[in-house]
Design a protein that fits this description.
1 helix, mainly beta, binds FE2/S2 (inorganic) cluster, Rieske Iron-sulfur Protein, about 40% strand, 3-stranded antiparallel β-sheet
């Protein structure tokens, strides 16, 4: 496990999705109270950036066609089989850290799945 500093926790506004990219992979980062959630940043419907969406109740809503995902788990309310991957993340001191190895592994799998002929 190799943790990478993603951002300062205080730079995140409560329940306001924020876009980050690690090694080319889009992430959506959401602070809620004293917690943070780091999810795959592209909607599973048509790939919109989830950071362009908004929070309603416990859900992160895609700004394009309204698919919703629990921001604490990534699970879709429409279909529980649809899940935005939730990455391991920790708040340590002032910063949010993510597991770079997990992100790289996810990127390779996602890229492979999209380019199978
Ligand atoms: S791209 Fe997100 S709901 Fe369609």
């Amino acid at each position: 496990m190799k943790y990478l500093k993603l951002c300062r926790f205080e730079d995140l506004n409560d329940r306001e999705p924020q876009h980050y990219q690690v090694n080319g992979l889009d992430l959506v980062v959401l602070r809620y109270d004293d917690n943070v959630s780091v999810l795959y940043g592209r909607c599973l419907h048509r790939g919109a950036l989830m950071s362009d969406g908004y929070v309603d109740g416990n859900n992160l809503i895609c700004g394009l066609h309204g698919w919703n995902y629990r921001y604490d788990t990534g699970v879709s309310g429409y279909n529980n089989e649809e899940v935005l991957h939730k990455f391991s993340a920790e708040i340590r001191g002032e910063n949010v850290w993510v597991d770079e190895g997990e992100i790289n592994t996810f990127s390779i799998k996602t890229y492979s799945d999209q380019h199978v002929i």
